[in-house]
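Researcher: Sequence of SAF domain-containing protein follows. Predict its structure.
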Amino acid sequence: MSVTDEARTTTGRGRARSSQAPADGGAGLVVSPPKLRRRPLVAVASALAVAVGALVSAYAYTSTSNADEVLAVTSTVHRGEVIDRTDVTAVRVGVDPALRTVGADQLDRVVGQRAATDLPAGGLVTDEAIAAAVVPGRDLSVVGVGLPPALLPGEPLRAGDRVRVVATPGDQGEVTAKEPRTIAATVVGVHGSEDTGQLVVDVQVPFDDAAELAARAATGKVALVLDSRER
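Model: Prediction complete. Tokens:
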């Protein structure tokens, strides 16, 4: 055998021995799979994101299903102006039940009414914001008459009552045979309190009588008479 053949034989035997796996598994040739690290915060955050998304979807669905079709103002209508059909439109929104909005089916009732308050564009129409007429009306004025309880009727006054404001001579004057000056008026409202010693009665009078009534009321020498409520 030549030297070359002997070398080949030795190399082949070495390869055969190295290719045989150890029977007892003692050699460190098997590598364990890496262990995954759990991140609790990531899991909690993911769960919260899913929950929030579900709540938002539920709220959006509920808001849409509970929305009502009501009237909204498209262009500003100032107090006292007549509401035109082009001033309002129907919108679908969710509103608080405490807000007395006007349904879209009431459009014909609203058109032609007057704005009881300023109606800004983009706002909702409410029952309190519209009226068949405004106070004071055309060629009328409202005057506040401050009176002590002694110069008022004992019957509580209500809006719409017809009254007369009568000029008086005052505490030191004397009543003459001449008929005192009176101004017919309609009660608009009453405010103040008897605890303060004075009530203010807002009355509506013709425009031409407003200046005189205001001047007489300022002197404190007037009384108020309630006329019949029968119509």
